[in-house]
Amino acid sequence: MLDTAPHAAGLHVRGLCKSYGPVQVLKSVDFSVLPGQVVALIGENGAGKSTFNNIIAGGILPSGGQMWLDGEVYAPHSPAEAMQHGVVLIHQEIRLLPDLSVAENIFLGRQPTRGGRVDRAEMIRQSREILEALGFDIDPARQVRGLSMAVQQGIEICKALLRKPRYVIFDEPTASLGEADAERIFEQVRRLKSNGTAIIYVSHRLDEIKAIADHVVCFRDGVRVADWDGPSVSKEQMINGMVGREFTFEHRAPAPNGDRPVLEVRGLSRGSAFRDISFDLRQGEILGLAGLIGAGRSEVGRALSGADLIEAGEIRLDGRALRLSSPRDAIEAGIVMVSEDRKGLGLSLNQSAARNIAQPWERRLARAGMVMPAAIDDLGRTQQKRFDIRGRMELPVSSMSGGNQQKVLLAKWLVKTPRVFIVDEPTRGVDVGAKMAIYEIIRELAASGISVIVISSELEEVLGLCHRVMVMSGGRIRGELPRAEATPERVMSLAVVSSADAHGGN
Amino acid sequence: MAVLDQTGQKTGATQKGKEKTMLNAIKTVQRFIPGPLIGLILVCIVFSTLSPYFLTTRNMFNIFSQMSEIGIMAAGAALVIIIGGIDLSVGAVLAVTLMLNAWLYRDMGVPFVLTTLAGLALGAFIGFVNGVLSTYGRIQPFVATLATMSACSGLALFITNGSPVTGFPTWFSDITSARVLGLPLEFVILVTVYLVVAFWLYFRPSGRALYAIGGNEEVARLSGINTRRAKVMVYVAAGFLAALAGLIVGSRLDAAHPTAGVNDLLSVIAVVVIGGASLAGGSGGMMGTFIGLMIIGVLRNGMALINVSPNLQPVVIGFAIILAVMLDRRSAQR
C-alpha cells in the first residue's frame, strides 16, 4: 500500500514530521488511505495519533513532510480549509449544547435562513433526513439533554456528515460507549465506507478494530512501527506493536489458602439495582465480577464499600456482621473500593496527588489533633515509590497521565492494608504499559493475603487475574465459574441471561 | 514520549540557561509571596507617597477598626466559599442578631450577658438553617441563603418596627475603644478569629476536609468524610461569626440599626475573592483572605485620605477585584 503513487485517488502522506521545540512528536510518518477504505490507527497515549489526525484535519501545522489529496498537494491551514477539501475530524468528546434541540445542534453556526431569519422548518426537515439516513429514530426538535451517549455521538457524526465529507477521521468514537451502542457507530462507519468515503479510525478497543478495519497502522513514539491487514491481525500482534514488548493479561496470584471466608455476603438487595446477592470471599482470593454494563456489578461494589445503603441482606467480615451506613464505616472495617469513574468519584483533580492520597486517612495522620503538611508530603513520597507513580506528587493530579492518575487512585486506597479491596474497571482509560503495572499490583495484593474483587467489562482482564468469576445480569448473580471453566463463551452466555430463564442464586 | 521530553529539556537548558534561572528565581519568589500580598504592598506604597498621614500607627489601627466586622464575616464567608457554597445572608444575620440582642436588653429587660448569648445563638441557628437547607434540603446555597437573607432583614426591621435601639451598657460600648497591650481590642478579636479559623483549616482533619469537599464533594464522601455534617458546620460558623461581627458594630456605634451590615455583603465576598479563593470551591485560605481584607481596607482608607469622592470608591474596588482575579489566574497557569 505504501507503494501507491501519491498521484492516485485517496489521501497520501509522506514523511510527515511535527516537533514542538526540540521535542519530536511525529517522525517522518508515511500513510495512505483510499476511498472506501477503513484504516485503523492504534498506539498508546502519546504515540502521536492525535497530532497526526489534527494535522490532516488542519488543526495543527506540520513541521515537515507532504500530503496529497486525490493527486493534488494538500496543505490545510485551518479546520475550515480542511473541511472545504472534504476532510472532517470527529472528536472523541461529545461537544453538544444540552439545552438546544437536536436540529439546532446539527446546524450550529450555519443555520439555513430565509428572509434573514432562521428557517426552523427547513432545519428540522434536513435534520430528520440525515438522522434517518443514519438510522437514528429521534425527533430533531427535541432537546439533546437526556439522550443516551450513543445517540449524542450519533448527532456529532450527523454534524460532521452534513458537510458531505469524503474523508472522515473518527477519534475514539466508542470510548464512552457500551458494546451495544458501539455497534451502532460501526454501522455508520460501514455505511460511509460503502459510499466510498475514506475513513481513519482511532480506537483502543482492539476487538472492534479487527471487526471494522481493512488495514491497521500502529504508531509508537511518533513513528509508524507496524501495519497489518485488518481481518488477519491478532490482538496480541497489535498490543505488542503498541507496547513494543510482550503484553499479557495473565497475572495469576497463588491459590487462596484457608477455607474460612473473609467476607460473607448473604441476600444483599437494593431496590432495582441488585437483588439477593450472596457469595463468599476467601483470604488472598481474587473474585471477578463479570457482566454487561448496567448489570449491577458496580452497585454491589458500592454497597459493600458503604457508598450506597443496602435494603436487605447481611455482610459479614471475618465472621462479624457489619452495619455500613457510610463509606467511613467501610473504610474503618477495612473494605475499600476503587471507583470506575476516576475523575468524578475517585480523585479531586485540582488537588495535589499527595493530598488526594491522604484524603481518607487524615484522621490517622493527625498528631495531637493536627495534620502537618510534612506528614502528607511523606505519605505522598512513600506511595510514589511503592507504586512507581511518575509525576510530581505536589502538583494537581490532573497534570498526570491517565495511567499515573490510576496509580494515584490505587495508592490512595492502599495506604492502610485493607481486608477487602474492590476495584471497578481498574484499567479504564489507561495505556497498555500502565495496565500491566496495575495487574501486577492487584496480583501482589492477593499474594499478600488481601481478598480482592475485580469488576471489569474486559473479559480477558477478569480471566487473566481472577481465581473465580461470578457473572451478573439484571441485578442478579447468574452463575459462578472457577477459573478453569471460565471461557469467554460461558461467561458471555451467563451475562446475557434474561430474567425469565434465570436460575439465579449462587 | 517521556524520553523525548527529557532530551528536549536538556538541549533547551543549555541554550536558554540564563533566562531559565532568572525565570526560576521569579517563580520561587512568587511561590513564597502570594500575589495578593504584592498588590497590598503596591497599594500601600502608592498611598504613603500620596498622604503623609497614611503610614501612621493611628491610621493603621483605624483601618483595622473600620474593617473588623467585615473581616470577621469574611472569615466565615471564606469557609463557605472553600466548600463551594455561598452565604448571602451574613449581612442580614448581623442586623437581626444585633437587633434581637438590643431589643431583649432594652425592651424586655433581660440581662445583657444573656441577650448577647441569645444574639450569638440566633446567628448560629440561622447558619444551621442555611446548612440544613443546602445539604439535606438540596436547595442551592445561593437560593437558600437568599431566602434567609430576605427573612432576616425583614425580621430585623420588624422587631422594633424599623427604629434603631440605643443605649447599651457603657462597658459594652467601651470595648471597641479598649486596648490590649496597646492594640485595639477589635484588632485583637479579628486576629484571634483568623488564627483560630486558620488553625482549624490547615491542621485539623475536619478543617482540611473542607478543601476536599470543595474540590469534589462525592470524592470526599467516598473517602469517608461526613460531607453533610461538615457543610452544616461551616454555615453554622459563618452565622456565628456574623453575629460576632454584629456585637462589634453595636459596641462601636453604641446603637443597633436594623439595616446595619446590609451593605457589607458585597465587601465580604470581595475580600474573599481578592484573597484568592475561587467561587467554584476548593481553594482559598485565611492568609489570602486577611490580605484581601487589608487591600480593601487600605483602598477605602487611602481614598478617603486623599479625598476621592465616596461615590467613586466602589468603582476602584470593582477594578481591584478584576485585577486581583486576573493576576491570580495568570499565576495559577504558570
Describe this structure in words.
- The complex is a heterodimer of chains A (506) and B (334).
- Chain A is of the alpha/beta class and 506 residues long.
- Chain A has 3 domains: 11-96 and 144-243, Rossmann fold, CATH 3.40.50.300; 248-334 and 416-506, Rossmann fold (3-Layer(aba) Sandwich), CATH 3.40.50.300; 348-415, no CATH class.
- Helices cover 33% and strands 25% of the residues of chain A.
- Chain A contains 18 helices and 22 strands.
- Chain A has helices at residues 49-56, 79-84, 102-106, 120-133, 149-161, 179-194, 206-212, 235-243, 297-304, 327-333, 342-346, 353-358, 362-365, 373-387, 402-413, 432-447, 459-465, 488-495; strands at residues 11-20, 23-33, 38-42, 64-69, 72-73, 87-90, 113-114, 117-118, 167-171, 198-202, 215-220, 223-229, 261-270, 274-282, 286-291, 312-317, 320-322, 335-338, 420-424, 451-455, 468-473, 476-482.
- In chain A, the strands form 5 sheets. A 6-stranded mixed β-sheet of chain A has the order 6-9-10-3-11-12, sandwiched between helices. A 6-stranded mixed β-sheet of chain A has the order 18-19-20-15-21-22, sandwiched between helices.
- In chain B, the strands form 2 sheets. Chain B has a two-stranded antiparallel sheet. Chain B has a two-stranded antiparallel sheet with strand order 2-3.
- With 334 residues, chain B is an all-alpha fold.
- Chain B has one domain (66-305, 312-327): ABC transporter involved in vitamin B12 uptake, BtuC (Orthogonal Bundle), CATH 1.10.3470.
- Chain B has helices at 2-15, 17-32, 35-50, 57-82, 90-106, 112-134, 141-159, 170-175, 185-203, 205-215, 217-222, 227-253, 264-274, 286-305, 313-333; strands spanning 165-166, 179-180, 183-184, 255-256.
- Chain A: Keywords: ATP-binding, Cell membrane, Membrane, Nucleotide-binding, Repeat, Sugar transport, Translocase, Transport.
- Chain A: It holds the Pfam family ABC_tran.
- Chain A: InterPro entries: AAA+_ATPase, ABC_carbohydrate_import_ATPase, ABC_transporter-like_ATP-bd, ABC_transporter-like_CS, P-loop_NTPase.
- Chain A: This is Sugar ABC transporter.
